[in-house]
Design a protein that fits this description.
The two termini are about 15 Å apart. This protein is of the alpha/beta class. Strands 3-2-1-4-5-6-7 form a seven-stranded mixed sheet. About 35% of the residues lie in helices and about 20% in strands. Helix 1 runs parallel beside helix 6. The radius of gyration is 16 Å and the shape is globular. It contains six helices and seven strands, in the order βαβαβαβαβαββα. The mean pLDDT is about 95. The structure holds 5-O-phosphono-beta-D-ribofuranosylamine (GRF).
Amino acid sequence: MIGVLVSGSGSNLQALLDAGLPVVAVASSHEDVRALDRAEAAGVPARVFPLADPADRSGRDTAMADWLAGHGVTLVVCAGFMQLLGPAFLGRFPDRVLNVHPALLPAFPGAHAVEDALAAGVSVTGASVHLVDEGIDTGEVIRQEIVPVLPGDTAETLHRRIQVVEHRLLPAVVRELIAA
Ligand code: GRF
């Protein structure tokens, strides 16, 4: 049973739903994001867990982990979730929290991976699915796929092509993990 963490548009959540994977709960860091509409449209329970007090990350993490576990979640997928998770969350799902990142990690971690790859002038970048630890995109890489940088690419055009890959890669890895 999969729980998905989101913060924004939720196109990767949609890819998991469209793949028919057992998404049973969606937790968002923010209200009024498109990902919540997607969860509602799919009939999946969703709830917002704002980080109201950054000093109390463990309180937010515990509440979110409790809620997901209460829905039977055994695998957590961060799909555009833009906040760090601490031990109060990760300790509840050991080696069972994944993230999808728009670069070939360990290159270009962080929130501006596509812009950073363009600024570095690389000829290829890509998408990575990796385990989440307490660092910023530092967990073990499970699978990656290359995406070429094309002449004239902007962050927007490049990110769009990376997301096409993400939407295939992420459901494939999740399907394998839940079958294992
Ligand atoms: C994805 O490109 C993902 O790699 C990055 O944030 C983006 C989220 O997009 N972490 P979406 O919310 O799934 O549409």
